[in-house]
Amino acid sequence: MVKIYQSVPVQTSEITPEQHYRSRRQFLKAMGIVGAGAAIVAACAPLINSTEQPEVGVDGPTVAAPVETLTPFEAITNYNNYYEFSLDKESVAVLAKDFPTSPWQVKVYGLVNKPKTFSIEELLQFPQEERIYRLRCVEAWSMVIPWVGFPLHLLLSEVEPLPSAKFVRFETVQDSDHMPNLRNRRFPWPYQEGLRLDEAMHDLTILATGLYGQPLPNQDGAPIRLVVPWKYGFKSSKSLIKIELVADQPDTFWSTTAPDEYGFYSNVNPEVSHPRWSQASERRIGESERRPTLMFNGYAEEVASLYEGMDLSVYF
């Protein structure tokens, strides 16, 4: 079974060659990523047509997917927003090199029937899939990343949210021994984020445990992070240790730090400018030309209905 999100039309010329997806399938098996379930392809975040970075595939007929170049592994792992380590994107990888990610636990609690603390080993037992998503940052740069992970709704279903649960709060680890920028007192540590429950339960929202077919690098949020592809990248909290279901909209790191600049929803929206720059265009890392920013980062067909009737210039 293949689930394809059709936000971008598929042309016959763009069908992935069979030898490419076959070689990718063998690679995924070797890495232990593909289990009994099939890999899921997010076709609205299209795939590169290359033997060097081959496409995600499944057993059976070739899956049609639009062609879009994946951001190179070196760029994804050496240009990072991770403020607990540094405000300098190019320093994070070096500073995070010795960050310990084992043992690791994620506490899921709050307005649920069955609160539970999951070890990273238990989290890796959820069916790991590879999904290729765009990541769009508020500073007007973007990447196309082949994440490995599983839908968040699978985890939330395990703890059985109560009817009173309306939001989900995420909290990142505070490790003062390995995260030097925690000494920066201008920020409201720990890093917290939040989603409405329906956003958290959407199939596009995943907990990522890897990228490019290998475990998640420290600088990218190891050992487990949130990925919400239609929102600006800062909504996708890294190195999670707590997931709490709550009744009221939670405070978040950036809406607390700069409420006039960063709202709770933070949906990618080219029509709503940041107070200090336009969001109408973006630059893909590794490219020199700018491109128009897509509404909801290109996932409008899948998620626009979540915000029906809302003024997105107010609820930004």
How many E strands?
A: 12
Give unreliable regions as ranges: 1-31, 33-66
Global shape: globular
Radius of gyration: 19 Å
Q: Helix share of residues?
A: 10-25%
CATH superfamily of the domain at 73-126 and 147-262: Oxidoreductase, molybdopterin-binding domain
CATH architecture of the domain at 73-126 and 147-262: Alpha-Beta Complex
Query: What is the succession of H and E elements?
Result: HHHEEHEEHEEHEEEEHEEH
CATH topology of the domain at 73-126 and 147-262: Sulfite Oxidase, Chain A, domain 2
Structural class: alpha+beta
Strand content: 15-25%
The CATH first-level class of the domain at 73-126 and 147-262 comes to Alpha Beta
Question: Strand count, sense and closure of the main sheet?
Answer: 7 strands, mixed
Number of helices in the DSSP assignment: 8
Distance between the terminal alpha carbons, to the nearest Å?
Answer: 36 Å
Notable characteristics:
single chain, 316 residues, alpha+beta, Sulfite Oxidase, Chain A, domain 2, seven-stranded mixed β-sheet, five-stranded mixed β-sheet, 8 helices, 12 strands, disordered N terminus
Describe this structure as you would to a colleague.
- The protein has a domain at 73-126 and 147-262: Oxidoreductase, molybdopterin-binding domain (Sulfite Oxidase, Chain A, domain 2, Alpha-Beta Complex), CATH 3.90.420.10.
- The chain is globular.
- It has helices at residues 18-31, 73-76, 92-95, 120-123, 152-159, 197-200, 253-257, 300-303; strands at residues 105-110, 116-119, 129-136, 141-151, 167-172, 192-196, 206-211, 214-215, 225-227, 240-246, 281-284, 290-292.
- The longest helix has 14 residues, at 18-31.
- By secondary structure, it is of the alpha+beta class.
- The strands form 2 sheets. Strands 3, 4, 7, 8, 9, 11 and 12 form a 7-stranded mixed sheet that branches.
- The two termini are 36 Å apart.
